[in-house]
Write a structure and sequence with these properties.
The chain has 191 residues and is of the alpha+beta class. The protein has two domains: 98 residues, Ribosome hibernation promotion factor-like (Double Stranded RNA Binding Domain), CATH 3.30.160; 68 residues, Sigma 54 modulation/S30EA ribosomal protein, C-terminal domain (SHC Adaptor Protein, 2-Layer Sandwich), CATH 3.30.505.50. The chain is built from four helices and nine strands, in the order E-H-E-E-E-H-H-E-E-H-E-E-E. The chain has a five-stranded mixed sheet. Strands 1-2-3-4 form a four-stranded mixed sheet. Strand 6, helix 4 and strand 7 form a beta-alpha-beta unit. The termini are far apart. The mean pLDDT is 83.
Length: 191
Amino acid sequence: MRYQISGKQIDVGDALQSHVKTELGQTIEKYSQRPTDAIMVFSRDAHEFVCEATVHLSTGLTVSARAAATEIYAAADACIEKMDKQLRRYKRRLRDHHRDRSEPVEFAGAPMYVLAANEEDEGREPETLQPMIIAEMETKIPSLSVGEAVMQMELAGAPVLVFRNEKHGGVNVVHRREDGNVGWIDPVNTK
């Protein structure tokens, strides 16, 4: 497994890197025998250390966790524990996903834009309805089944996931609703 352990304005020493590699490696090994990539970023938020981890599984799924604590080792351990809990909860589905899928998840590129917020114009009518684009990036849209998309959204801790439905190739969206349920948007292509 490839590790990328870094800190935002924090020096991450060799001892912490070794601790993270050992603990995270043991956790991931319990649930996935295939090689993966792991990214762990440490930062400070007032008096707490924040640890954010993202693990890319070889099947194409991504698992994310975030934790904060007053000590950096405690933040790392709490983050790894959250990831362990997520993987334990989805262990059977991850195994079934791996068995059913003979090849890794395919990704298609798509442009992504960041639009400027008009905070100073609150209360006034905007001059134009055309938003100002402040950044252009490339994002990847996975080809998944609906069940895999829901699992991916929950593993990543994301409120929404855009994906290409494997059954018909159309773009779909799953999202976490306010009532706690998951919503699925499947537009019908009519011409």
